[in-house]
Amino acid sequence: MTVPKEMPEKWARAGAPPSWSRKKPSWGTEEERRARANDREYNEKFQYASNCIKTSKYNILTFLPVNLFEQFQEVANTYFLFLLILQLIPQISSLSWFTTIVPLVLVLTITAVKDATDDYFRHKSDNQVNNRQSQVLINGILQQEQWMNVCVGDIIKLENNQFVAADLLLLSSSEPHGLCYIETAELDGETNMKVRQAIPVTSELGDISQLAKFDGEVICEPPNNKLDKFSGTLYWKENKFPLSNQNMLLRGCVLRNTEWCFGLVIFAGPDTKLMQNSGRTKFKRTSIDRLMNTLVLWIFGFLVCMGVILAIGNAIWEHEVGMRFQVYLPWDEAVDSAFFSGFLSFWSYIIILNTVVPISLYVSVEVIRLGHSYFINWDKKMFCMKKRTPAEARTTTLNEELGQVEYIFSDKTGTLTQNIMVFSKCSINGRSYGDVFDVLEHRAELGELPQRPEPVDFSFNPLADKKFLFWDPTLLEAVKMGDPYIHEFFRLLSLCHTVMSEEKNEGELYYKAQSPDEGALVTAARNFGFVFRSRTPKTITVHEMGTAITYQLLAILDFNNIRKRMSVIVRNPEGKIRLYCKGADTILLDRLHHSTHELLNATIDHLNEYSGEGLRTLVLAYKDLDEEYYEEWADRRLQASLARDSWEDRLASVYEEIESDMMLLGATAIEDKLQQGVPETIALLTLANIKIWVLTGDKQETAVNIGYSCKMLTDDMSEVFVVTGHTVLEVREELRKAREKMMDPSRSVGNGFAYHEKTSVLEAVAGEYALVINGHSLAHALEADMELEFLETACACKAVICCRVTPLQKAQVVELVKKYKKAVTLAIGDGANDVSMIKTAHIGVGISGQEGIQAVLASDYSFSQFKFLQRLLLVHGRWSYLRMCKFLCYFFYKNFAFTMVHFWFGFFCGFSAQTVYDQYFITLYNIVYTSLPVLAMGVFDQDVPEQRSMEYPKLYEPGQLNLLFNKREFFICIAQGIYTSVLMFFIPYGVFAEATRDDGTQLADYQSFAVTVATSLVIVVSVQIGLDTGYWTAINHFFIWGSLAVYFAILFAMHSNGLFDMFPNQFRFVGNAQNTLAQPAVWLTIALTTVICIMPVVAFRFLKLNLKPDLSDTVRYTQLVRKKQKAQHRCMRRVGRTGSRRSGYAFSHQEGFGELIMSGKNMRLSSLALSSFTTRSSSSWIESLRRKKSDSASSPSGGADKPLKG
Amino acid sequence: MDRTSQSCRSRLPDNTALKQQRLPAYRLQLSATKVLSGFFATGAFCLGMGIVLILSAKSIKEIEINYTNICANCAELRENAINFDKECTCSIPFYLPDTMQGNVYMYYKLYGFHQNLYRYILSRSNSQLMGRDVKDVGNCDSFRKTHNGTPICPCGAIANSIFNDTIILSYNLTSSVRIKVPMLSNGITWWTDKFIKFQNPNSNNLPSAFAGTAKPPHWSKPVYELDEEDSGNSGFINEDFIVWMRTAAFPTFKKLHRRLNRIQYFTEGLPAGNYSFNITYNFPVTRFQGEKSVVLSTLTWSGGSSLFLGLAYTVTGAMTWLASFSMMAIHLMRKEKKMFFPSCQVKL
């Protein structure tokens, strides 16, 4: 073996890639990556990222400066800092510095504490991932290392069911030929297994000593986020070996059905495709946030206007009066003219009036959101007992947006469905067996109904799968009776598939199915006594009712997207040759022998029934072949497969020929088990006017099937449009046709441009439509010139299903809706393929409790069942929105009422920036006297009980239409605040101007006036919050009464003799409270102010309730009336509708393992030894597989996909 | 992940009313009976209160004499600061048609004098005024120290601008016999002001206590000579001084100056008849276009002769009743229409 250090030169001479001449990768952007196995020293030169991932922002040292820096990037915080600086200038400071610094420090502290806690949890989760154990080959020994210590160039060993720690080049595995099975659910959401293979030269490196000597160097592309592409070259022993994605194991995958494998780390940590795909977390703001920021800006504008008015007033006043008043009060030394005095007074007033937007606004909003997040975390009804996972609000800043969602983008697999296939019904020889779950039995599954019938007892069969449940005992009886049709039916199921079996111990069978559908069918056959036991490339051994029978496997006519069927040709021990075929009904029913007509009709009825229930159906048929015909056919098949050109077409036609005139056996119905309560949730959300789009990587048929079974698509719909065009023109045409159909036919003109005349398709739509669009069509539809057309069409439809979409497309669709619709979007998904979508949408929801956590990590909310979405939106979201709106309305109101008094007072105090209130009152008003009641309202308020918001989903609409807090509502609040401030100032003014105290002394001194106005303000805003609070819990009582009590307590304390004694210059109001508040006139003033402020509000609300009640008002009222007569509200009924026929031959995402099986490539050596067969050259099957795959990717399914409606 | 079942169980949220948002609560609902009865009650209260207040205000006897222009010559003299040491008096005769029953109070009232300017209000030193340190002139700004650096006592703009007219009310018992109406200059401040907020420095001898300080520039005599007869009313605790120091909220204000000492002829109050004010005119107001007047008034519990509060109450009460009637009418009209909501919406 060559000395490693000399190798690069050698390669350079051997004509390595041109970028090679650059000795060092440029540091900024890596142009290529080189990693040499087992040579840490060499790899360290490149300073590749380590495998340590870091999502946290701070550490202990950087926390304070970084956090403060971040906080002062918030405009509000900087603004308050600016105010604070203003206040330090003596000439313009009209308030003591502490009126701003106390709240500011409070706000900064609270935010900092929150950030610190968040970051702590990020540290924790990072640590947890970074400290996962993996086995690394160091110095020839396997050592346990933490993930974070894995470096580029290390060789690590993975065991079955382990997560892949980094992006690896597969070197060798326990399976023959360096094969290795992985599940990529975390990456792309597909849960079927995929095969990866090591390149032949390395696949022999089975033991550690060999691996330790391995010193190949990989040169490959720099880190990128393309999950399905990899190009690189392995240089080893002076040879070059091309590397592709087929040789890579990506971080986030799980090793399945492979005992162990070795891999060379190519990308680590942040460079892995998984992390590259996760992108940066965008900071999400809610629409309320944005509105609030706009409003705050407006308020600043308003503030400046008021400042200007008062400054002008001051200049005029100083010019007219103040100049002559200088005997008593000379101007400041700095002030030389009335104009300058006006200028100073502008700043002084900015300081005084800044309380219209208090700092506590931001912190209160945060606190309320935090409270709402806790309610979500605490919700028992969103706790999944099975997985023991509670709902989690991972972002605390988005809650109220949950009450405004208009579009939901949902992943399918793992989100709507459990990705569990259950053999639930079958039709054999015209008789239907099996019992589907209905609503009742859904509950029975949870064990709530003990009287539920027992599942069929399979104990007669020692090889039965204990987990398999079937509820119709008649089928088993028929099997035991020996009904030949039923036997043939199950024989077919046990023979016609590409499942591999594994028997670790005697009788302990494991099936490795490429798709869960197939697994379900073979398992069903297994339990009914037709146990598929093992296979060799040429045989299949089946235990039929206890006796082992070995069939000779003559051919597998594999599945592909066009054929939509698969067949096997077997020779039974008696020597008879039979073809067994299973496939999509649309395809298979045309290829049956005409003698089966009667049976056909019965079966079609059953198929309709099954698909009406949302089951995935397959039709089973067989055909007896005579020896000569088969020989002749096999010959032609061989010819076809050997053909140089278009061998695929030729093969297809050969297959087609033999798969005809078949005898119908029956049909199977597989339930793609939906998650609990999915149809109900979707129905409810639809009623709440939320549009649901399903974006799935799945095949179209599967997606449409699920669409039906979860009631997104119904047979009541006028039409389901399917867009499958391959070119821009086709897609455009299909979209146009869809729009035309949707519009009132009488109005649409024959020519294709009818839609241009209408402003929106949305308005013209009559009836319910749905749109199904394929990934490749979507790619065209998302192009800049067509995206609007697509959006318009899609939004006019009630349901949209996008299938075969890539993670990026998911995000693009979401982005499209976000861009043009101004609607709040929510994306929900469970896999890493949903991450981009989850991050793009306004709100991302991750389904937790699955194996993958990528989606959850990227999400804003997570829970483990799709059905919790209804509670999250309709209950939590709705309440959050309501509370936040009520909070904001009240908050602006109370601050305007509070602050504008200064404005009015300005006209009486020579615009000298004298405050009306004591400075302590100004400091404490927002943080003590009025903060808790409104917080309590913001956290606890409820308009209607939670059950009602589920019963009346229409209650959700105000949020979508943004009715509760918008610019109009804001102006109403402001107007009310200003109205209150006018009364708050002028009523005491009217009273005080002439009045005396009851002992004859002056009443209208400044301090008494201040106390009177402050007291009436506190009382008025307390009464107002009492009116706004719809749900008076003990806490609300405590806070509201408590605030009043605290106000008076503090008032008397501040005005006490003791404090004055200690700080005579700080507490000037000594004795004021007891002297002022003892006056009847003062109390009469306060009472009058309160009455005049509150009465119009009550009257207005009462009239609104009577004349234009909200839906929630009506619901409340109805509730009140109905209190006695408890109506039966829960009205769920099973829809036993016969649906259109939909085939669900959806058992693979990609081509089956057929060829793999026949070639024997994946067979263990032991089984290989038994069989003697010739095989194509070692790499050819992969080659052909790849060729087919790329073919089918560029030209899939075609016309066969189209007609969904029968 | 590998969590123990123990910790798994602990993930189940507590089933408490707080955490499940099921806190027992009263749902505020604006029902017709509650709102309407509330409105009627409030209306009744306001109307009643209004009438009582109006009657009470009407019962007050009050007389106000604006002497800015009557004493025009003095005002002119005071325009010029040079004449500060020239005395100027003026006498204002007036006729009181009705007896002023009970306690009678004499106020001086200033128009357009801004005691509520920001810098004016600040311009005082409470620690000086409470006698702790007579030389503490903290916030007093332009009136802290004299030119030669002696701290002013009492310092600040408020103290400096004290109202220093002397107003003497005399009663013409007959056309020739004039007697001075006995007036009390004590009891015109809050107890807390006189005994807490304002205190003389601890010393047996007032002048020595104020040694080392200067009088404010506008003052004619030092603070310890404010009341030479009564040492309990001199220095910082002089009640006229205290009254002035309690700054007014609005530019127009009246401050209590004297109260009637109900002795001799005045046990019942001020009898009807001819009176005259003898005013020593010291306080210049015309320079800033202010005015000043002197007010005699009786007293009521509700404070003052102003009808504002009473009228406001009456109007509010009337409006409230009007509103409640119209609301009732609307409510009754709407009641015909059922406010029910169509029942179960969720059908699958």
TrEMBL record, chain A:
The chain crosses the membrane at residues 95-113, 295-317, 337-363, 887-908, 920-940, 970-989, 1009-1027, 1039-1060, 1080-1103. Mg(2+) binds at D411, T413, D830, D834. Keywords: ATP-binding, Lipid transport, Magnesium, Membrane, Metal-binding, Nucleotide-binding, Translocase, Transmembrane, Transmembrane helix, Transport. CDD domains: P-type_ATPase_APLT_Dnf-like (cd02073). Residues 36-101 form the P-type ATPase N-terminal domain. Residues 1192-1206 have a biased composition (Low complexity). It is a multi-pass membrane protein. Residues 1-12 have a biased composition (Basic and acidic residues). GO terms for molecular function: ATP binding; ATP hydrolysis activity; magnesium ion binding; phosphatidylcholine flippase activity. One of its GO terms (biological process) is Golgi organization. InterPro entries: ATPase_P-typ_cyto_dom_N, ATPase_P-typ_P_site, ATPase_P-typ_TM_dom_sf, ATPase_P-typ_transduc_dom_A_sf, HAD-like_sf, HAD_sf, P-type_ATPase_IV, P-type_ATPase_N. Its EC number is 7.6.2.1. It is an enzyme of class 7 (translocase). It catalyses: ATP + H2O + phospholipidSide 1 = ADP + phosphate + phospholipidSide 2. It is found in: Endomembrane system; Membrane. GO terms for cellular component: plasma membrane; trans-Golgi network. Its cofactor is Mg(2+). Residues 856-1109 form the P-type ATPase C-terminal domain. Residues 1-38, 1178-1206 are annotated as: Disordered. The active site is at D411. ATP binds at D411, K412, T413, E518, F559, K582, R616, T696, G697, D698, R804, K810, N833, D834. Belongs to the cation transport ATPase (P-type) (TC 3.A.3) family. Type IV subfamily. This is Phospholipid-transporting ATPase. It comes from Phyllostomus discolor (pale spear-nosed bat).
TrEMBL record, chain B:
The keyword Methyltransferase does not apply. GO terms for cellular component: endoplasmic reticulum; Golgi apparatus; plasma membrane. GO terms for biological process: phospholipid translocation. Keywords: Glycoprotein, Membrane, Transmembrane, Transmembrane helix. Its main location: membrane. It holds the Pfam family CDC50. The chain crosses the membrane at residues 35-57, 307-330. The keyword DNA-binding does not apply. It is found in: Membrane. Belongs to the CDC50/LEM3 family. This is Cell cycle control protein. The lineage of its organism: Eukaryota, Metazoa, Chordata, Craniata, Vertebrata.
